Amino acid sequence: MSRIATCFATLAAQGRKALIPFVTAGDPVPSVTVPLMHAMVEAGVDVIELGMPFSDPMADGPVIQLACERSLAGGTTLMRVLEMVSEFRRDNDMTPVVLMGYLNPVEAMGYEVFAERAAKAGVDGVLLVDLPPEEAESVAPLFDQHGLDRVFLLAPTTTEARMQIIAAAGTGYLYYVSLKGVTGSGALNVDEVAAKVETIRKHAKLPIGVGFGIKDAASARAISRVADGVVVGSALVQRIADHADEPEKIPARVSQLLAEMRAAMDESE
Amino acid sequence: MAERPDYAAFPDARGHFGAYGGRFVSETLMAALSELEETYLKLRDDPVFRADFDQDMADYVGRPSPLYLAERWSDKIGGARIWLKREDLNHTGSHKVNNTIGQALLAKHMGKPRVIAETGAGQHGVATATVAARLGLKCQVYMGAEDVERQKLNVFRMRLLGAEVIPVTSGSATLKDAMNEAMRDWVTNVDDTFYIIGTVAGPHPYPMLVRDFHRIIGLEAREQFMSRHDGRLPDALIACVGGGSNAIGLFHPFLNDDGVAMYGVEAGGDGIETGRHAAPLAAGRPGVLHGNRTYLMEDQDGQIIPTHSVSAGLDYPGVGPEHAWLKDMGRVQYVSVTDKEVLVAFHELTRTEGIMPALETAHAVAYAGKLAKTMSRDQHIIINLSGRGDKDIHTVAAMEGPKHAS
Predict the structure, then answer these.
(1) With an 8 Å Cβ cutoff, are A166 and B27 in contact?
(2) Cα–chain-centroid distance for residue B59?
(3) Measured over all CA atoms, what is the biggest interatomic distance in chain A, rounded to whole angstroms?
(4) CATH code 3.40.50.1100 for B64-93+214-404
(5) A74 touches chain B (CB under 8 A)
(6) Does residue A254 sit in helix, strand or coil?
(7) Sheet holding A208-211, edge to edge
(8) Is the Cβ pair A78, B304 closer than 8 Å?
(9) N or C end of chain A: which has fewer CB within 10 A?
(10) Quick check: do B17-58+96-206 and B64-93+214-404 share a fold?
(11) For chain B, first and last CA: distance in Å?
């Protein structure tokens, strides 16, 4: 079983939900990322989504745009991101790592080379924001061949017909984007999310993570009651931005918020 | 030799031109793009929709635009006869209005009360603000902060027309960043908003439908030229290429005519060898940006790199996917001219014909001057004179300094 499947199966057996942080690799400097990943695991996260920086992050709000700019200014390349995962794997063989980002840097490296290097580095899954299943047909077999899960997005605008296509194309888990908008925007409507997740479950057996709009312990707790995983990104990245001048404080500051979320999610009713 | 494809049959059903095009967007926009595609495919052949479009082209835009023989300029060059397809005489001063009218009609059919657009030189923004005013649609235009500065006149025009111009400061603060922001707006307001993309790029079906609305340029030019030359076709077509909407509009109806040579002129900026240019077809490589696969200006890690051109409208790191395909097929030759050559051509056309071209358009004019010299007097070139130059007089004055001062 893959690390991602094992992770969700273990959590399900315990009656717990996955806490899934997103941070941009190399933000604000490359040396922060691996210590930050270990600190987040200490704080109780289950899967790490690691952002591959891109110059034109079209689906992201200002918080993650700026994270990409800081990361690129610090010299982080896709090759460097893969090295960070290798380094993390020296001390952690259990926590799944999913690379998340845009297609072009992966296309520039070459899909085959990327899949091989990512698998070798210890990456478990890949989520490419601007690669819907319809355009992923030639990429999917390469990812399969190297044991990389293909994580796809679902959105409030996704029709039931498309849910079936996406459920068939995805592996590992599905990521439901809780609102129309870019990352870091808008207010969460938990009832709407709950209804949509129920609809998705009719078409998909994979675990469902929910992201966008989860900012604090209360929203993490609320979403953990309706989904299999809680994805938190901009709220963490904002903390990184707040401490960009003193990066040594970043692992502790980010972990603090994650620990609060973890505790709230694990509270019994 | 491989058999020539039927160029009119592309894109395929999934929006691909060979290896290019497609629909590379986040999931939230997939449903909206499918809806747009369905609506367009249904209305494209609908007689009422066609009649509405044709009537607007005639009564509001002022079509057909003339095909004018630049006799004095041709004589001065001493080679091929050069004809100008006068898109600069359209309402709002450029070809852009053909497309904004088409897309605004789609928006109306789809019941969307709000339109958004990205703009570089401001010509597409003005054309969008114009149709929005006419149809009573709310309109917001995203424009790179640098372009807001260098195209002040068009910013003022848009505001007078009731549009809100939103300066974009992220990234390089030019056209690509304006497009990023427009995409972010659309993903947020997809229920009530129609995104009027200004060029033949973006996710399917945009490259197809924007091209179709601009085909009228080539269809008219073909008819106008042939009726004056006993059914003979021109020898060469020339148009500037940023995203490539005016070029594809002129070229497309001639693509299956083997004897017609075509030249797309990219922005050479300070010169291709300097790296300071906006010529992805000349010096870029295939990648994925803004919803389609095409040639891009990018570094070895796949990050988009800054572009440079004297003309804001060509200052873009990508190009329409159909052009990428036509380049690979060898059907269209893509060339470039430098900022310096563009300024010379701007003055030359202004002084010999009394026609002041936009700086974007002046790229095509500059290349035509070079090409015409190599051709004989019984050969004919058609340039798409895609826009007028009033908006650029401050840029020209600033570049050339005190000689315009008194």
Answers:
(1) yes
(2) 22
(3) 48
(4) yes
(5) no
(6) helix
(7) A149-150, A125-128, A97-101, A48-51, A18-24, A229-232, A208-211, A174-177, A153-154
(8) no
(9) C
(10) yes
(11) 61
Q: For residues A71 and A55, what is the distance between their CA atoms, to the nearest angstrom?
A: 10
**Considering A46, A49, A124, A149, which one is annotated as catalytic?**
A49
Could you state, in order of their start, the residue ranges of all structural domains in chain B? 17-58+96-206, 64-93+214-404
Does A60 qualify as catalytic in the annotation?
A: yes
Cβ distance of B184 and A182 shorter than 8 Å: yes
Helix (H) or strand (E) holding A228: none
Write out the CATH class of domain B17-58+96-206.
alpha beta
Residue-level pLDDT, tens digit, chain A, 269 residues: 899 999 999 999 999 999 999 999 999 999 999 999 999 999 999 999 999 999 999 999 999 999 999 999 999 999 999 999 999 999 999 999 999 999 999 999 999 999 999 999 999 999 999 999 999 999 999 999 999 999 999 999 999 999 999 999 999 999 999 988 888 877 889 999 999 999 999 999 999 999 999 999 999 999 999 999 999 999 999 999 999 999 999 999 999 999 999 999 999 76
Q: Strand B261-267 to strand A149-150: parallel, antiparallel, or no bridges (unpaired)?
A: unpaired
Q: CA B118 to CA B278: how far, in whole Å?
A: 18
Place of tokens 């200014």: A73
pTM confidence score: 0.96
Which is the catalytic residue, given B336, B353, B386, B391?
B386
Reported ipTM: the value is 0.96
> Tokens for B296?
């891009």
How many residues does this entry show for chain B? 406
- The whole-angstrom distance between A255's CA and the closest CA on chain B is 29
Catalytic, out of B37, B65, B112, B118: B118
- Minimum distance, in Å, between the CA of residue B34 and any CA atom of chain A: 11
User: Which domains are present in chain A?
Assistant: 3-266 (3.20.20.70)
Q: Looking at beta carbons, which residues of chain B come within 8 Å of A132?
A: 23-25, 27, 30
Alpha carbon of residue A32 to chain centroid? 18
Structure tokens at B74: 């041709």
Give the number of C-alpha atoms closer than 13 A to the C-alpha of residue B263, restricted to the C-beta side: 22
